[in-house]
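TASK: fixed-backbone design
INPUT:
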């Protein structure tokens, strides 16, 4: 008997507020942003400075065990700079999203 092994998928798990959860689910928002801080650097980057690769992003609306959730294709991560004041620029991770899977 031959068993077909499905390769393990790399999934990025993110929790969102309802407003952003609904925007992504409706297709109104195609990227999610995270601050360029130590916590997100460790979650999104490898030790050599390259970006981790994911197959999907699983979004949840809140932390309740029955919170709504969906899976979406992961496309890529970029670091972007955004002007947040007259003399201030901050860096963010932009997580680009594809089609909703489930």
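OUTPUT:
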């Amino acid at each position: 008997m031959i068993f077909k092994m499905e390769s393990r998928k790399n999934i990025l798990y993110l929790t969102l507020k309802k407003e952003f959860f609904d925007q992504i689910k409706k297709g109104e928002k195609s990227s999610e942003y995270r601050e360029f801080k130590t916590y997100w650097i460790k979650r999104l980057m490898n030790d050599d400075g390259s970006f981790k690769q994911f197959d999907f992003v699983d979004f949840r609306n809140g932390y309740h065990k029955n919170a709504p959730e969906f899976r979406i294709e992961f496309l890529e991560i970029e670091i972007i700079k955004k002007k947040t004041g007259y003399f201030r620029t901050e860096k963010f991770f932009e997580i680009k999203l594809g089609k909703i899977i489930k």
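COMMENT: The two ends are 31 Å apart (CA to CA).
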